[in-house]
Amino acid sequence: MFRNPLLLTALSLTGAIAVWGVVDTDSLERFASAYVSQQFSSRAWFIMLVASLVTLAALALALSRYGTVRLGADDERPEFSTVSWLTMLFAAGMGVGLLFFGATEPLTHYRVLAEHLEPGQAANAALFVTNFNWGLHAWSIYAMTALAIAYFSYRKHRPGLISSPLRYAFRRGRWVAPVAWLSDLLAISAIAIGLAGSLAIGIFQVQGGIENLFALEPGGNALRLGVFAALCLAFLLPLTVDLSTGMARLSNAAMLVAGLLLLYLLLVGPTHYLMNGLVDSIGLYVSGVVRQSFATYPYFGETFEQWFHGWTLNYMVWWIAWAPFVGVFVARISRGRTIREFILGVVLVPSFFSLCWFAVFGGMGFHGVLNDGLPLVEVAAKTPESTTFVLLEALPLAWLTGAGTVLAAFLFLVTSVVSAAYVLSMFSTGGDENPATRIKLTWGVILAVLGLAMMLTGDLDAVRSIIALGAIAFVFILPLLVIALLKTLVREENP
Questions:
Q1: How far is 188 from 473, CA to CA, in rounded Å?
Q2: 3-state SS class at 338
Q3: Contact (CB, 8 A) for 294 and 313
Q4: Of 382, 4, 26, which Cα lies nearest the Cα of 188?
Q5: CA-based diameter of the chain, in Å?
Q6: pTM above 0.85, yes or no
Q7: How many C-beta atoms lie closer than 10 Å to residue 264's C-beta?
Q8: Coil, strand, or helix at residue 335?
Q9: How confident is the model at residue 247 (pLDDT cuts 50, 70, 90)?
Q10: What span, in angstroms and rounded, lies between the C-alpha atoms of 461 and 416?
């Protein structure tokens, strides 16, 4: 452990940020906000260009002659059925985020856009922006990162590290070794800080749910710390034993609860209203995704710029932060599949599920605002973690659906932290697929302290800024991974 420079550097870097956040939360929040704001102002064009070109590369690769190349030996076949594979994809890449932002994000965009558009137009535009943030771009970033890891691991027999594609494709350059080492370090930092941010957001959601279920005063630190302590106990124990099968079952159980919640809202809520919204959302997304892919809003003033930076740009960086973590998991469950079925499965199916999710949750929110006069826009602005639960109160069995939402969020958090600690341990030990328990526990503790630091901010925008702080540098590594993959694929014999 102490002879591994990458591990020591990664532990020192993330540990220092964690301690900084706990000791002086306000200072970390100010630094992250200022740095991210400066980076977004100067590099918005580059971030959008990278995300959009990666998306185009993924779709082009799926339709090219290289789509028949298999992730593994030519005679290998997938380990998991297509249905099981797709179920695990949803759990890996979405998790607690969909539960938190399902109604909150469309309503937040609506509040900004309603100042410039008619209510119906503002709702349409808000749902489109939400779908864009969670659609093809997010899953293409995941897919291309996972594809690079899977291709070089299973077809070229290299360690499952972010640096492996670079070392293989550019092995003659003097710059390769230091950049490859730095890419592993940046991937570790992005995963740790990104996961910790999701941990804080998930704790906010669980706290908001408990407060609504038991009519408690919102924003209590004692309850927040109690949820945090329970979460730590829940994920530290599994790190000491091999519970991969159990974790998969917990993750699938959380997805099942989320799926049932979606179906319940669709059937018990205004079904025709929600289905109209879904069909409308699909049309708006398909017709507007290309234009939005290259939109940076340079002429719309400071308010619009801040809104764009705080949401769409932040999301693009957030997906990049999660890409190494999700990429390793998706790569491991996708061995034996062709590149074409891999990309179409990883990109198109989850993107469509996201469209359905936001059409139902966002549609329910807009129905409450536009038809029933519910103060959901104000709730989303003041206590975003409570939006879903206030929405559920308008339907029968609110206590049961609220409890199910809390349970699903908690399960997603536990499985995410356990999986992230494993991936971080693997990355920081040169690709060891069976890292020592002490290393997994060390990463578990660091993730917990990082999550505590972000939780102490008590502010969603601050958490998102700190996530972006950890991931911005990795934006420059992602294009190299894609280029390394494409360069090596061209050399494939008889693709």
A1: 12
A2: strand
A3: no
A4: 4
A5: 65
A6: yes
A7: 18
A8: coil
A9: low
A10: 21
Bridge partners (DSSP) listed for residue 70: 338
Regarding predicted confidence, which is higher, 344 or 456? 344
Q: Which of 406, 352, 427 is nearest to 184 (CA)?
A: 427
Give the C-alpha separation, 99 to 389, whole Å.
Answer: 10
> Is 333 in contact with 113 (CB distance < 8 Å)?
no
What is the per-residue pLDDT across 363-414, written as a single tens digit (0 to 9) for each?
A: 999 999 999 888 999 999 988 888 999 999 989 999 999 998 888 888 888 8
- Quick one: DSSP state of residue 162? T
How far, in Å, are 25, 97, 475 from residue 190 at the CA level?
Answer: 19, 17, 10
CA-nearest of 199, 203, 234 to 322 is: 199
CB–CB of 192/21 below 8 Å? Answer: no
218 φ, ψ to 5°?
Answer: -75, 150
CA–CA separation, 69 and 492 (whole Å): 8
Confidence of residue 93 (pLDDT cuts 50, 70, 90): low
- What are the C-alpha distances in Å from 97 to residues 166, 301, 311? 31, 29, 13
Q: Are the C-beta atoms of residues 126 and 280 closer than 8 Å to each other?
A: no
Taking the alpha carbons at both ends of the chain, their separation in whole angstroms is 41
Question: What's the CA angle centered on 196, arms 192 and 200, to 5 degrees?
Answer: 175
Sign of the C-alpha dihedral computed for residues 323, 326, 328 and 330 taken in this order? negative
Bridge partners of residue 245, in order along the sequence: none
Helices (H), 64-162: 82-93, 96-113, 119-134, 136-150
- Residue type at position 197: G
Residue 186 has pLDDT above 70, yes or no: yes
345 close to 85: Cβ distance less than 8 angstroms: yes
